[in-house]
Amino acid sequence: MEYTREIRSPELDLDAIPTLTGKVAIVTGAYAPSSIGINVVEQLALKGAKVYIGARSLEKAQSAITELTKTIPSANLKPLVMDLNDLKQVKAVAQAFVNEESRLDILVNNAGLLARPLDKNEQGISVSFNTNHLGPFLFTLTLLPLLKKTAESYPGVRVVNMSSTTHFLVPAGFKFDTPESFNADLGGTDDPKSNIARYGLSKLANILFTKELQRRFDAEGVAAVAISVHPGGVKTPGSINFVGPANVAMLDGSMTPLQGAMTPLFASTMPVVWEKKTEYAGKHLTPYGYISEDRLSDNAKDPELAKSLWSTSETVIADVLAK
After folding, report:
1. Which pLDDT belongs to residue 5?
2. Is 163 considered catalytic here?
3. Catalytically annotated residue among 199, 202, 228, 297
4. pLDDT digits (tens, 9 = 90+) for 173-211
5. What is the C-alpha separation between 135 and 206, in angstroms, rounded?
6. I want to staple 105 with a disulfide (CB 3.0 to 4.6 A). Which of 23, 182, 222, 254 is the partner?
7. Torsion of CA 226, 231, 237, 242, to 10 degrees
């Protein structure tokens, strides 16, 4: 199966999104104009949700809030500032949120880095893998007490993790059994092919994390749904910067940021996801809300690999937080 192939079902009817008044949502990486994240925030706010906008600086988050309130004066928007590459900060921000907020109905782990050379942070972990998997993993786990508490009173809590078809680029039989696996070069440290493959490695982790999170929800009887999402090929500021101004024509025919927001919006808001929980829980969706388990690699469908990733992630994070 070609990892670049996409399925597009009819676009989500945005008017079909139910009222979200009283609900609280977090969307990470949601500050950039013409991005998927800010379009998700806009639709959640239009339906009455209180939405926290994740960004690496207060200035970026506040700028997004200022722009959105021009068109949605009633929007209840709050900044949430953290750098996902800084695990200690991630832990602190998430814990502060748990201490201060009374509920959390929707968590959209949207923030992430595109393909890049194999660079490592101060802890010796791939910046890409740390930002795209370990940061969201720790953020979600720290928020779990609040997510579970919310699910007790308001069943149907959602955790949505953004992924990509590039997860197919990870070699079959890959193991997440050691911390060193997070720094796998997959053929090189700074060439287009290996850079994209390592991006795919972090996107594979997003899918596996989703599946193991759902398994744990079910084992504990938590009334919540975890879903991974491939938003589609989208023309955003990030993708334009990635291909470069000289190659922007490569993105002709790509989806708009609003179209890219539709599948995560479907996963995070539509009643059918909870009404048909057995069909959607732990599953992978492609545009626009199409259940696409048949479009996952064997790696992405391996429950033992998911458990191994979870265990190794916990070990690495514990080591970082202890220093």
Report:
1. 44
2. yes
3. 199
4. 999 999 999 999 999 999 999 999 999 999 999 999 999
5. 11
6. 23
7. 100
List the chain domain ranges: 14-322
* Cα(274)–Cα(272) distance, integer angstroms: 5
| Known catalytic residue at 203 | yes
Residue 1's pLDDT band, with cuts at 50, 70 and 90, is very low
Please say if 70 is a catalytic residue.
no
pLDDT in tens, 46-75: 999 999 999 999 999 999 999 999 999 999
Which pair of tokens denotes residue 208?
């596996």
The rounded Cα 214 to chain-centroid distance in angstroms is 15
Catalytic site residue from 23, 47, 50, 203: 203
Domain spanning 14-322: CATH superfamily: NAD(P)-binding Rossmann-like Domain (3.40.50.720)
